[in-house]
């Protein structure tokens, strides 16, 4: 097979090493310690608490895992090896002369059965992808020596980035072995299958190893071997947290507990704590209390039925073509083929209706009766004028408004981040975008000292204390310009707050409603935001700080377009596009936290920063007046806001859907 070397995308972060008989593509080295710290922080902030299993596999952890696979009780590895040895030739006959891409290749040991079958029929191409550059590098070296003539290109990166890089390799078979899919949650599995299906061309192949449901005794023995390697595997995670994150978990107080959860068809492996202790995540300056008896989920291993896997995969246009099953230790190798997507008439109709209603909601709800023609219009300008119009309606005490489309607010959060701060270590990051509006770019590096930033916007409840505590009367809290605006406007509270029977309420689109203490305060000027910040001994963030807290993923040394990652906002991620006609309670979108653990940076309320609306260096955009706001509000159209979107306004304005979050210098 004639094959060209993989080409790095322009916006890359990739480097390439050529050695004897192979090429290695290395992804941008991120800050591994910060990636680990952020992951532990997210897991400990969640409910129930859990740890991401990928951190089990450091050097010592991978060695222990190798030992686990050799234990008599641990059948999956041996069984899969047996299946591959027996069926690799048949798999090759079925799929033909295709390149082999392996996700999570590790040492590529079992893959040798596949490579034997492939190389027996002529030259071929093998692309192992693994997050560990050491593992993939070593595997490439060994394979290059064992299979002269094999075109080997290793990729040291995540599955997602690796799959992107091999997009043009075709035809191909992607392999995901070892039943590693069982370590993913159902949601993660959907995301994974969708990514695989999306990356394959119709006609390409996907070979998946899955462990099947079997007797509980057998399962529980495999995940609690008598020699104690599984227990050691989880102890190593606790030790790793201690050594790399500056924690001091008493490792003698930690046990591994594992059992088969029949309801969820998965083995659950926990770190169980025999006595109370603390877990400190030093790089992010967070401390968690762990109770005596608490169990923290550290890994799951799901067990499957072939039919269920096949029907799930079929939803992603992956059709099961061959199954190779070991009956002795039920385990299956499933060979899927990517088929062309067939449009289903009814869902397509539903999809169109949904799109139409979203568009209607976003474009016409504020203009009752008016036809909006978007053709040829600047969508961003149109979206902005829609939001301005809504702000004017809300600011007019006589104006009543009730939109035709409304979603329920998300469920009240089980844990609210009110008043919490998040630590962001100093260092270099990037801000701005090259592909957005002129004023939002160009992307450029920034060097910031460490800072702390609010985990959530300041709430009505917090702001009410400031109002009741005399914040509007204490001149020392206000800047000179703020004081002038305060005196001229006779401000005593946010502009839409009204007193009813001695209680502060809000006038919201024409109705007077009680103040919800958990919702972000809104319609405040930059001067009020600053006075509040001074009152609590803090300050507002600069826009560079805001963007770093929202976008920067230090684990991979890259900016993400949205705080939660690469997917545009949906109903589970942010309150945008009038989904809910007011800001939602802080903590309502726990899965959308940024890398540094900040909630609701996109949607709900625009956030004031300390930065003037200057253009970025190298930008051709004209200067703008006023102060920078970031993040968008509940009324901002979904498609026009991201981590890099810059909005500007007069700092005195109290008629914008603007709130704020605090910032602070870290304690020495
Ligand atoms: C990597 N993975 C497939 C193993 C499994 O069987 O779920 C991880 C493992 N954890 C403890 N023992 C094995």
What's the structural blueprint in terms of helices and strands?
Blueprint: E1 15-19, E2 22-26, H1 32-45, H2 59-70, H3 76-95, E3 99-103, H4 111-119, E4 125-130, H5 133-146, E5 151-156, H6 159-165, E6 172-176, H7 186-199, E7 205-211, H8 216-222, H9 229-245, E8 254-261, E9 266-273, E10 277-281, E11 286-290, E12 295-302, H10 306-314, E13 318-326, E14 331-338, H11 345-364, H12 379-395, E15 421-424, E16 427-431, E17 444-448, E18 451-454, H13 460-468, H14 480-489, E19 497-500, E20 503-508, E21 511-514, H15 526-535, H16 543-551, E22 552-553, E23 558-559, E24 606-612, E25 627-630, E26 646-649, E27 658-659, E28 663-664
Parallel strand pairs: 2-5, 3-4, 3-6, 4-5, 6-7, 24-27
Antiparallel strand pairs: 1-2, 7-14, 8-9, 9-12, 10-11, 13-14, 15-18, 16-17, 18-28, 19-20, 20-21, 22-23, 24-25, 25-26
Helix pairs in contact: 2-9, 3-4, 14-15
This protein binds N,N-dimethyl-L-histidine (AVI).
Return the average pLDDT rounded to an integer.
Answer: 92
How do the strands of the widest beta sheet line up side by side?
1-2-5-4-3-6-7-14-13
Count every beta strand, where a strand is a DSSP E run of 2 or more residues: 28
Cα-based radius of gyration, to the nearest Å: 28 Å
Share of helix among residues?
A: 25-40%
Broad shape: elongated
* Poorly predicted tracts of residues: 363-374
Distance between the termini: 60 Å
Number of helical stretches of at least 4 residues: 16
Indicate the proportion of strand residues.
Answer: 15-25%
User: Which class best fits the helix and strand makeup?
Assistant: alpha+beta
Identify the bound ligands. N,N-dimethyl-L-histidine
What is the makeup of the main sheet?
Answer: 9 strands, mixed
